[in-house]
Design brief:
It is built from 18 helices and no strands. By secondary structure, the protein is mainly α.
């Protein structure tokens, strides 16, 4: 197969262009549609709706965590099985992805809709933001099964190196979302509910396209006959997906925790954080796209036991990720005030948001190294190290750093906590990767 030949023999630049570039495009359009919600709501001038988007973001992260648990685990399991030449297991893994994702989506939908009052309290809403947050979450909850299944399929179809299928489906859904945002938010004046509705419709279209494409792939299966809960399938997929999913889920918790701390400094601070936080997505999502793009090649190479090539891919991609993150963070820093002003006309939000971006961008250049460490450990099946690495930046280090810095420096502590967390987490991640590399060499 052409894709397998690329993973087996392609140079690092070839892997980046043919495997990472499509994933980067998906990530960037995903960032754009996330920013579109904030942009159109912010331009309408309602700071409470703008704050509501930020307050609801942990639930969006939770949905992403579930599709990552199934999809990234399925992608890794299928890629390693392909490298080992086990075609029968690829069909079982892919069928498990389809039905497990659908089941988890239905469960999460019920939890969101039935637990709304408690959920609003946990998220830190107040009398001014609760109604807007609830309207956003209800529609998001109804769309959870489609969003989880679509996200899981988008990851799994890349297992054989075919990133174009995932790219086309994701771009179609995200572009539809971006087009519908101004219609639902600004023209129909549905506000937060319109933003959520556009997001769900985009994800439904993406899911349909991916499901149709997977059914045509001979190496994969969507048949209920290939679905099994046997431990060698279910636990393998869930175990390999756990590190990335745990990271995303803990990010959801940390975001809610950070929002609750920020609420104490007023709704303007929450709204400014919502806008500045989107800038924090741009570069990390880009380097994540680079690393996720080459992840099937890493898993495939590891399955073939070609350790020299494995080392070359990981070090090369890590260096390139660092360079790109450094250049982009410098550019975004120089134009941070103009960036915030594009989303809001509120002078208070612009001023505070530009300052918040300073704290956001400080340690962003090392994001490329951190993401490569996490991808390497997960793609090679070192679940314990990968899980620990994934949890560092999103909770194990972040939460205590947030609590300490907020107590010592107030709002400034919240703003700069992420930078301190990223630096500490990256050092620990590098040490874990070094340890695992030595273990591989001794095998």
């Amino acid at each position: 197969m052409k894709n397998e030949k690329l993973m087996r023999e392609g140079s690092v630049p070839q892997l980046l262009v043919q495997m990472s570039l499509p994933v980067i495009l998906i990530m960037m359009v995903t960032v754009l549609y996330n920013m579109a919600d904030v942009f159109f709501i912010g331009r309408c001038g309602n700071r409470f709706e703008l704050a509501a988007i930020s307050l609801a973001s942990p639930v969006f992260s939770a949905i992403s965590a579930f599709n990552t648990l199934i999809g990234f685990g399925g992608c890794t399991a299928c890629s390693i099985a392909l490298g080992e030449g086990r075609a029968d297991m690829v069909k079982k893994y892919s069928a498990f992805v389809v039905y497990a994702a659908l089941g988890l989506g239905l469960i999460l939908m019920g939890v969101i809709l039935a637990g709304m009052p408690l959920l609003l309290s946990v998220l830190g809403t107040n009398a001014e933001t609760a109604t807007y947050t609830a309207s956003y979450l209800r529609i998001l909850g109804l769309g959870a099964p489609f969003m989880i299944l679509g996200g899981a399929l988008g990851n799994t179809v890349r297992a054989d190196g075919d990133v174009k299928t995932a790219m086309v489906a994701a771009l179609t859904g995200n572009v539809l979302n971006i087009v519908l945002d101004p219609l639902f938010i600004a023209v129909f004046r549905w506000g937060c509910a319109g933003a959520a509705f556009a997001t769900v419709l985009g994800n439904v279209v993406c899911m349909i396209l991916l499901l149709s494409s997977m059914r045509k792939k001979p190496a994969f299966s969507c048949s209920i006959r290939d679905f099994t809960l046997q431990p060698d399938v279910s636990l393998r997929v869930l175990g390999l997906g756990l590190p990335m999913a745990a990271s995303t889920m803990l990010m959801s918790f940390s975001s809610a925790f950070s929002n609750r701390l920020t609420v104490g400094y007023g709704n303007v601070a929450v709204a400014a954080r919502s806008v500045a936080g989107k800038s924090a997505m741009i570069i990390p999502m880009l380097v994540m796209g680079i690393c996720m793009g080459v992840q099937p090649a890493i898993s495939y190479t590891f399955g073939r036991k070609d350790h020299a090539r494995l080392r070359k891919i990981v070090l090369g991609v890590g260096a390139i990720s660092f360079g790109i993150a450094f250049a982009l963070s410098a550019g975004l820093f120089l134009f941070r005030r103009q960036y915030i002003a594009a989303f809001s006309k509120d002078a208070e939000i612009i001023s505070l948001g530009a300052y918040m971006m300073l704290g956001t961008l400080l340690a962003v250049p090392v994001e490329g190294v951190y993401q490569m460490c996490s991808t390497y450990l997960q793609a090679t099946g070192k679940v314990a190290y990968a899980t620990l690495t994934s949890l560092l930046q999103k909770g194990l280090v972040l939460v205590p750093v947030l609590m300490l810095m907020e107590r010592l420096f107030g709002l400034d502590g919240i703003i700069f906590a992420n930078a301190v967390t990223t630096l500490i987490s990256t050092v620990i991640a590098l040490l874990l990767c070094r340890s695992w590399s030595r273990q591989i060499s001794e095998m």
